[in-house]
Design goal:
mainly alpha
Length: 172
């Protein structure tokens, strides 16, 4: 009984990064679908109590999971071709890099304010939210993406175990 597939080093690295990408896509899809299911699309400031916090947490988690896909170590060589896909992709990475992953000062505003009665600061921060349409589009993008990645994984595995075993391995 053979327990381990012996792959060339480059193929092993490629397979590992494709596998990790599938995991991250699944995580991102779960968050997007949960936000849709709960109806948590739109402005979080219009929500009350813990719902606002939960919406923010799931939105940030979605942005982080999606952003992890695009590190050079995980994914390379894939590009979106549709203009709307590119726009949403750029938005996700901008939010990840300038708001969620790092607090870039240009993303926020702080204005000191003084009157005779009191003083304060007027603070502006980006509101993290996606519309229902954006969440559905992102989910569709991720489905197409996972299909393409699975095709690459299948081709890679097929060279080592043949098409039938490769298909069985991807089904588990």
């Amino acid at each position: 009984m053979k327990l381990k597939i012996k792959m060339k080093a480059t193929d092993a690295v490629d397979y590992q990064r494709l596998y990790v990408a599938v995991v991250d896509i699944g995580t991102a899809r779960s968050y997007a679908q949960y936000l849709l299911k709960k109806g948590w699309h739109g402005w979080p400031v219009l929500r009350r109590g813990s719902v606002r916090v939960q919406q923010g947490a799931f939105t940030e988690a979605l942005i982080i999971a999606y952003g992890r896909l695009w590190s050079p170590e995980v994914l390379k060589g894939f590009v979106w071709s549709d203009v709307d896909d590119i726009s949403l992709h750029d938005c996700m990475l901008r939010l990840r890099n300038k708001v969620v992953g790092h607090s870039v000062p240009i993303s926020y505003t702080v204005k000191p304010w003084v009157s005779d009665e009191f003083s304060t600061h007027i603070f502006g921060q980006p509101h993290l939210h996606f519309t229902r349409v954006e969440l559905k589009r992102l989910d569709d993008m991720l489905v197409r993406f996972i299909t393409e990645i699975q095709d690459h994984r299948l081709a890679l595995l097929t060279t080592y175990v043949g098409p039938e075993k490769a298909k069985k391995m991807l089904a588990t």
